[in-house]
Amino acid sequence: MRSWSGPEVPTLPVTGPPVVLHDTASDGPVTVTPTGDGPARMYVCGITPYDATHLGHAATYVGMDLLHRAWRSAGHDVLYVQNVTDVDDPLLERATKVKVDWVELAERETELFRQDMQALRVLPPDHYIGAVESIPLAVQMIEALDAAGAIYQVETDLYHSVTADPAFGDESGYDRETMLRLFGERGGDPDRPGKRDPLDCVVWRGEREGEPSWPSPFGPGRPGWHIECAAIARHHLGGAFEVQGGGSDLVFPHHEMCAGHAQVVEPGTPFAQVYSHAGMVGYDGEKMSKSRGNLVFVSALRNSDIDPMAIRLSLLRHHFRSDWEWVDAELFDAVDDVARWRKAVALGAGAPSAPVVEEVLAALADDLDAPRAVAAVDAWVSATLGTDGLADNSDPDAAVAIHTLVDAALGIDL
Ligand code: 5CA
Ligand code: ZN
Predict the structure, then answer these.
(1) Is the domain defined by 19-283 classed in CATH 3.40.50.620?
(2) Alpha helices per DSSP H over 98-175
(3) Mean of the pLDDT values across residues 30-49?
(4) Distance 289 CA to ligand 1 centre (A)
(5) What ligand is nearest to the CA atom of residue 53?
(6) How far is ligand 1, taken at its centre, from the CA of residue 280, in Å?
(7) What is the pTM of this model?
C-alpha cells in the first residue's frame, strides 16, 4: 500500500542520548537501541479506516513519531512498519450502515489519514501494509501455528490456543479476570461455546454470507485481527524487533495476542523487545472513539484553517503516555504559541541555544517527554523575545539552531 510523503529531517549538530522508553511488559524504563548494525525497528498499529482521523489517533501517531525522531537524533537508522486494518468487523458494519462499498470506504478514509499525517508532519512508515494485501502472510502464519499444535476449529472458524505460548500474559501483566473483561469489550468472544479456553482468539473466520472472503487451505474466509499484525510485523521486521507501539486500548487483547502468535511460531524469541503505549485522549468526559461519536477530526480542524503545526503543538503539550482531555481553548493557545515561536526565530540572534538543544534531546530520549522539551523551547522564546536587542541576546546563530531543533526533534516547522 502507498505510504505518505514525509518532510526531510534536518541534521542536528549534536547526537542525542540513547532512547529510554517505558515498557508496558516490564512496567519500567528500558533503553531501546538497535542490536548490531541494523536499524531500530518499530511497528505501530495503524487505523481501521471506517472514519476520519480524530485527535486521539493523531496523538498516538505523533507520540510514536517522537520515537522515530529521537532514534534518528541518536544516530540510528529506523525501519518503520504500520498496517491498515482494511478488512474487519467495524469497517464492514459501517460500510453496510452507510451503504457504501467497504473497499471504497477503506480507500477513502485511508487517503484522508495519509493527508492528515502528512499535514501533521508525521514521518511515514517504510512499509505501509494493508490487511487484505497481506492475507497470504496471515495464512502462512496460521499454518505455522497449526504445525506447532496451537490451532483448533470451531465450526468453520480457526482458533489459537493462548496456552500454547508459555509467556502468554507477560505483555499486559493483567490477571485473568481483567483479561476476560477486556477480551469481551474489545472484539473478543469469551462466551462462544466450543472454545477450549474463553480467551482463545480467532485467527481465521470462515466465510459468512454477505461478507468478503478469500480462499485458503482452511476454506474460504478472512484472517482475524491479531494474526494480521503479528504476520505483517514478523515478515517485515523479524523477531524481537525493538518496539511495538499503539494506544493503550491495544495492550489487551491485541498486543498480547500478537505476541502469543509470534512466540508460538518462534519459541524463545519475544515478538517485540519493548511495548510502548500512548494514553487515551478524551473529549466531553469520555475516551474519544468512533463508536461513541465524541470526535474532533484532524481534517475538520485543517478545513477550518487551523495551522497543523498548532494542532501538533497542542498534542505535544501532553505526555504521550498520559490520558488527557482535549480542550478547544488549548488549541487556540497553541496557535498563539506557534506565532510567538516564529517571531523569536525570525530575530536571527537570540538567547543561548546550546543548552536548549541539549535539554530538548534529553527530554525526548527520556520516554518521549515532549511537555518538558516544549517547556525548554518556550523558555528560550521568552528569553529571546524579552531580550531582543539587549546584551543577553548573545547567540548570533540561535535562530537557525532552534529552528533546526524544533523541526528535527519535535516535527514542528516554524
Ligand atoms: N487497526 C487497529 C490496530 S491494528 C486499531 O486499533 N485501529 S483504530 O483506528 O481503532 O485505532 C488506531 C490507533 O489509534 C490505535 O493505536 C489506537 O490505540 C489509537 N487510538 C484510538 N482511539 C484513541 C484515543 N481516544 N486516544 C489515543 N489513541 C487512540
Ligand atoms: Zn495492530
Answers:
(1) yes
(2) 102-119, 135-147
(3) 95
(4) 8
(5) 1
(6) 9
(7) 0.97
